[in-house]
Design brief:
- With 115 residues, the protein is mostly helical.
- The protein contains five helices and no strands.
- Helix 2 crosses helix 5.
- The chain starts with 8 loop residues before the first helix and ends with a helix.
Length: 115
């Protein structure tokens, strides 16, 4: 695993397909659940959606990115959104789950290390 190499556009497109498929899976699972169980999947969806926007921005603007730069960026986003959810008590009001966001970003970081 060489984290110091640049990502090619096909790597980013594969990563975007992975994120899109995960987001679709979350939506399908969420439709089958009761209201009190949906918070976790809302967090998952939010994590994948944030990542999709980031990758689309990189592809659209033709930016060059190394694997470790993207890894560190998603690590920072995980910390930022975990703090945001905690400060605004979103997990208590039922909007989003910290556990879901955390799991989504861990899946993303694991995918990046496997490239």
């Amino acid at each position: 695993m060489n984290m110091n190499r640049y990502l090619e556009s096909y790597h980013l497109k594969d990563f975007l397909e992975y994120l899109n498929s995960k987001a679709i899976e979350v939506i399908k699972k969420q439709e089958q659940l009761e209201n009190f169980e949906k918070d976790f999947y809302r967090g998952l969806y939010k994590g994948y959606l944030i990542s999709i926007v980031t990758i689309k921005h990189i592809l659209r603007n033709r930016l060059t990115v190394k694997i470790y730069e993207l890894y560190n960026h998603f690590k920072f986003l995980k910390t930022k959104y975990m703090f945001y959810v905690e400060v605004n008590n979103l997990n208590e009001t039922g909007n989003v789950s910290k556990r879901g966001i955390k799991e989504a970003f861990y899946n993303i970081l694991n995918y990046l290390t496997s490239i």
